[in-house]
Amino acid sequence: ISRFDSGLTVAIEPPELEMRVAILMKKAQAENVTVPEEVAFFVAKHLRSNVRELEGALRKILAYSNFHGKEITIEVTREALKDLLTVQNRQISVENIQKTCADFYNIKVADMYSKKRPANIARPRQIAMYLAKELTQKSLPEIGELFGGRDHTTV
């Protein structure tokens, strides 16, 4: 056993909505700027992935507000973040991921749900499950169910 094998593996989940709002408010306070709570809530609701994304969005809003000489409102925020929000609004479904992976690896979509275990089927299925976890808001049990009733530990 190597010394790396004895380490602790921990999954770091994105912060919850309330935590994202609090982070935005604290970051704005650190910049000596007052951001209305409804603006922080709007940003936190639409940007979910991580703290860096929230910080970047806040910087973008502040820069846009300063450059245009406008007070920070939801409308100004929407305009400042329009490129980020359009990317976020493009929903990626598990079904779309399954179809794309199946097409790429030249297997049938039905193989994604099957119990077959050959490497040419299992590997694309594993990749599709990983992408579903990373690119959707689905829980591990939900993803497992969409892949033929697999257990969340498999996902």
Automatic annotation (TrEMBL):
Keyword annotations of the record: ATP-binding, Cytoplasm, DNA replication, DNA-binding, Lipid-binding, Nucleotide-binding
InterPro entries recorded: DnaA_C, P-loop_NTPase, Trp_repressor/repl_initiator
Residue ranges the record marks as coiled coil: none
Domain Chromosomal replication initiator DnaA C-terminal, first and last residues per copy: 93-155
GO molecular function, one term: DNA replication origin binding
Family as reported in the entry's similarity comment: Belongs to the DnaA family.
Protein name from the UniProt record: Chromosomal replication initiator protein DnaA
Higher taxonomy: Bacteria, Pseudomonadati, Myxococcota, Myxococcia, Myxococcales
